[in-house]
Queue: 2 jobs
Job 1
Amino acid sequence: MRDMPDSLARQRPQAEQMMNDIFRRVGDLPPLPAVAAKVLEILKDPDADLTALVSIIEKDQALTAKILRVSNSAYYGLVRRISTVKDAVVTLGFNNMRNQVLALSAYSLMQGPASGYALEAGSLWDHSLCTGLCAEHLADTLGYKSIKDEVFIGGLLHDIGKTILSYYVSARFSNILERVDQLGQTFVEAERAELGFDHAEVGARVALRWNLPESLVSMIGDHHKPDLKSVNAARVCLVHVADAIASMLGVGIGVDALEKRLREEAAQLIGLTDHAVQDAMAYMSDLGDLREYIGTH
Ligand SMILES: [Fe+2]
Ligand SMILES: [Fe+2]
């Protein structure tokens, strides 16, 4: 041990201690999974029944109020007013409702300033929503319609690890920045060198702890480095590409923009074309104020 360079000898136990410390305190985080996990559970059942979904949502008054506000927002362009959760589920459908519940839950986690990432309040949220919508659109246009709802959620949550790290390691951030600036490391490399782990790894571990579905754990954990052989490869690659496009659009990129590198092989796996990228970018700019979508403005 004595012969090892100081930094190496110290780093592993420190990293483990920091990780353990973070996970001991994850319970302090706002409850993403409480309602969201139940909704996911119900919708996994092919005979999912409307009453069960409605009653879970209705138990949370704040969520009910938000759902009604969003359902009546300009995004859906409905003529008739929606006044009950049941009405909202029937009119907008199960999938829309699931996306809303997850998006609103994720929003409550991400709206705070992720100070460690030099992102202003709400900016990580904008980036996440943009990535989710872009992944959904890519799935739609590249022949992955059956998984478009899943990749929307994956895009929405892919950087959840940043929220976690911004709670716990913001003090270490200047060192990470220095590595990016002076050593030319990517953000993920700098996180790993400084902390012994990165935001994708933290996000995946939290998602596991929250009992989120395995495909979601992969989309969160592998979004910077898709494993092309994984059963979830297409999902992960869609999120990876959407993340890069969202960053190209300058939505909530902060200093993290420096790490953006689109992996050629991920683009190939989903059959990405120049036209699809241009189309996705046009779609994103047509959406205008993204926050209108989820009523969080
Ligand atoms: Fe990321
Ligand atoms: Fe991202």
Job 2
Amino acid sequence: MNAFSSTMKSIRSLLSVPSVASVLSVLSLLAVPALAADKKHDPSDHTHEKKTAGPNGGRLINTVTPRAEFFVTADRKVQITFLDAAGKAIAPASQVVTVTSGERSAPKTLTFVKSGDTLLSVAALPAGNNLPTVVQIKADAAAKPITAKFNVDLAKCGECKLAEYACICAH
Ligand SMILES: [Zn+2]
């Protein structure tokens, strides 16, 4: 047997059906744990949920049900939009929202009125582009408020291009 036919014989044995099948079965065995690991990082797992923006590019408040988007309009009013599980706007029910914003020495309290499918603040935010803010949302006038505290930083994030108060980056 010369070197060529010996090489061809080993190539043929590599290509034979049983060895291809065994390679495939090894691959499928390897694939099972990989899939199980993916499942662990399912985005619906709320403890590891990636930050997402609201439909208007605002900040999501996930501690209320239904969750709400906090968004500052071009005329510095606060717009609260309640969202269904798919992130679609749903008309406010009997929620009562109060926003207190501005320096602690002179904070401004905003009240809200229905505007389409959202709640819109009657007045604008006080002056300043980095305002300590407290949002209180009650399911109805008699309910206990859910409170969210954050700075309304209106500077644009260079990475996600959203305002810093709504930034979805890890920083
Ligand atoms: Zn960002």
